[in-house]
User: Fold this.
Amino acid sequence: MQLAICSHFSKGFFMATAKPDKAATKPQAAPGLRRQPSQARAQQTMQTLFKAAAQILDKEGEGGLTTNKVAAAAGFSIGTLYQYFPSKEVLVRAMATRGQEMVLQELGRYLSELETLPEVRQLDGRELLAKAVRILVRGFATGKGLSQSLIHLCWTLEKPEETASAVRQVADRLAIFFERIDHPALQTPSPAQMFVLTRSVIGTLRSASLEKSPLLGSPAFEEVLVQMAWALLARQHLSHTA
Assistant:
């Protein structure tokens, strides 16, 4: 899945706290990597290269991103970079893979915390949805600061089968969440409802990122996504009054 979520590179992983889906959160090796970063030093080297690439993209755009510039900005030789990434494309795809893992884990952590909260059924159902939508918006479109340009580049390198896999993971995790909390304001969605909801939200974010829409980051854009989710998932006696 060549999209996403490179705004969390400086923060480390967000791990789910209750019944995490091992298949959904298990780190995946990015296609084309020459060396698998099993040791702490290798992980730190890759993290430093990722940050350098993101900074160059933010300052110079896609045209300014080269492996030589990334290596220099990160303080490594080009040979060190090539030990991990044989090309710029492989570097960006590795960043996308890492970002995908992080956003799925952040969403999983948020949902798991709610599932273990005794008073979750008393919380505002619409606000529960809104916070989940915000995680997806930040991860798949707006990022934070310099990451919008990187997310855009990741989308341009998208592989449809990887995108579909990530969207299925989001849909499956949300379906489990709604079933577990049994919230009085939120129905347990049918497979059709969950399919339409997740593809509509993430498809909209994909289009907004690729088009560099001025709507990205605006409250109005996010609010419409929340309204759509609420219309699909609110129990019928509530959806008409919102």
Q: What stands out?
A: The chain has two domains: 30-86, 95-242.
